[in-house]
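#dry-run=false #mode=assembly
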Amino acid sequence: MTAYLIRRVGQAILVVIGVMILTFILIHIEPGNVARSVLGFRATQARVSLFNSTYGLNKSLPAQFWSYVDEIAHGNLGDSLYYQQPVTTLMGERLPNDIVLVGLSTVLALLIAIPMGVYQAVKRGGVADNLLTGVSFTLYSMPTFFLALLLIGLFCVQTHIFLPTAPQVQNWTGLFADPRGIALPVITLALLSVAGYSRYMRSSVIDTLAQDYLKVARAKGLPQRLLLFRHVLRNSLLPIITLVGLSLPAVVSGAVISEDIFNFPGMGQLFFNAATQHDFPILLGSTLLVGVATVIGNLAADIAYGILDPRVRHVSH
Amino acid sequence: MRKIRLAAAILAALTLTAGAAACSGSSGSGSGSSNKGSTAGGVKHTGTVSLAWPATPDFIFPFAPATNTDGYNGNLTNELWPVLTYSGDGGQSIVNPQESLFSSITWAPDDKSFTMVLKSWKWSDGQPITSRDFTFVYNLLKYNWQNWVNYFQGGFPTDVTSVSAPNEHTVVVNLNQAYNPAYYVDTILNEVPLLPQHAWDKESASGAVGNYDETAAGAKAVYAFLQKQGGDMATFATNPLWKVVDGPYTLSQFQPNGTYTYTANPNYSGNKVYMTKVVNEFYTTDVAELDALRAGVLDTGSLPLNDLQQANLLKSEGYSITADDLNAFASVYVNFWNPQVGAVFNQLYIRQAMEDLINRPQIVSKIYSGDADPGNGPVPLNFGSLVSPLEKSGGPYPYSPSTAISLLKSHGWNVVPNGVTTCTSPGTGPADCGAGIKAGQQLSFVYAYPSGVESVNQMEAAIQSWEEQAGIKLTLKTAPFNSLIGTIGTCTQASHPASTCGWQLFNEGYQPYALYPTGNQNFNTNGTYNLGGYSNPEMDTLINDTDYGNNAATFLQYENYAAEQLPQLWLPDSDFINVYKSDIGGFLPGNPFSEAINPEDWYYSS
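#status=ok
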């Protein structure tokens, strides 16, 4: 297991370095002048030159890349060209909000999807299964913005139960100052995830139910409830663990569309604004963070898999 | 795009003011009546109102560095440290005598100096506002103007030769040349706020206040200190420096994500402020803002023209909707130095033909539902006496495809309606295409504009279609504003090979004016906003006459000339649609220089 972990971590580091290089190159070959994007097209040449020298944009690309790597090595992602604040500060303000948003929506989605998937598998082919399948596919195929606007229309404009915009807060605890503000972003993301999770869960449970050891357990007279909770659920959760692990990048990348619609002060909003403002340090920082999170998420899923399924450990040896 | 437009409008709002009294050299009174609606009867003396902004400020010291062009900094600071001349009184394009910081400005007969008497107002800490506060501002900028984002060539403070303060409330400013008083007061003095010397003249947070600004080294140190403090967003609402204000509000809360709250300044010396708390919220998108309005959780906001169909719904939910004029002009920039088509644009008859093909009245009626200035020339119609009869009558180029086609044919072009017109008679004769235009040259241009606004999309598509009638082919290119401006720069004879000079036609949106709608910076050679590099000695002379002379007739002469010469192609300029809770009073008539966003004038009816 140790050798396996070392190998996986080594691969992860290489992937992150590759992501960093690729992102840096892609961003810098984009047409357009960074200084003018930030300063406006009326900026005088003197002002553009001052901007370029202030941010090191007058150096060659390799020199800029080396400076960037050097800064990262010192834990610094640079300063935002637009906000003129350290990127780490900007991310530090928004990342906890996304952890709350994505974390809550994932938990809510799992609380709905797991029982739903199990129920559908047990009642496979029945009316309830078909009905829930229809609901799942509807949610699965629904664009985020459409569902969000639908919920806003229903719960904010028509009934005034929730607020259409998230609280504009300085730290994540403030998100709960008025829970009506965060309810809809969480519900929207959860509903969109329910479809995927429940379908995986349903398939997984159906596969598990067909296993010989369950037939034996059933033949031995094990009650259905015990059968489901002790044997079926645990073994069927493996694919869900992978899915949850892979959702880690969403925590740090945020949910761009939902955050925009609900005016949620998260990483997605930060990234979107940076993309439209040519704010390279934020784009680079965000991409790097997402790359790291993707690698860590995969790694965590692999490790969790190994812990839950001894066969994986044995194979890795 | 909205950011730049708003920023510019706010900048203009800050800049335009100094009323007719000041401009004429008389000693006006600061106690003139306001044009705001009456507040008599049923006014609540406290209230909280929420506003929406599409972007966030990131700097609080009123003199942001040259590299910081966040237009929303002005939104934040103007309520804290207003500029000397306050533009707009009610809905009128005049100096607001009540809210301006001076009580009079008297010009010397040669218009090369003026004496300004400051009002006997107080800072929020109770200290009096004095002429020393003005000299503090002047000294800081005198030694640091290179690092002030609002500085423009020839403007304050490099236009000043000396400043003296003969008494506590009087300053005498000597200029390096004669100025048109209206231009100077309306355009230059509304860039300049007063700053509290008694609290800010220090070189470090723990240092004592002194007269450091009186030496070059000291002024640089103080400026550097204040700029450093001014960028620390975490302390915007807590730094003792920023607690000393002379505006209607103090900053009580600021969140780096863009939300900030004002509380009424109890020591404000101007009109009584009824909205005691103003919550400024940041909305990334129009959709989020509209949702907040529809849900009733936002007191005021703007309604994109695309969403005008929501107006009835909003009205039914207790909002009022108003279309407010902007003191601005809209236009299409043409690049006179583009290597492929610059020579074509240099021909006035080509620009005339293109303007002849733009059906501006139809844009106003069909796309903007009547809520727009017709764009008959460089000066919008709401400038009253400064609008020439030519502009009032529809401008020099009413919609006329036949005139456009005749013009092109008479200059040697083979006009192919719905195709591409080409030059068949190169040369410089009166019937030829013109200098630098070769045989076979096509009237085919790339027309760039910012994406995201449906009404603009409709207008550009209509223009494209109208131009086709004379075989002028426009290829529309749209992209997010901030992406687009990375590829578009100011082009002149000297700069035109630059990568940012490849554009051909560009519609930015609108360009706001100060109270005095000068052509300076817009149409003069090397003007800051003269993106296309238009250069015409006669235009330069006329603009100089309007800014530095003192003859009202000269302005109309300039205006007509600019309207006819088409340094840019004129377009209608849409109004700004505001939505506000119907129980908010004082919203109307809206100030054209601030997009009607003046919470210090608002109140709730009891």
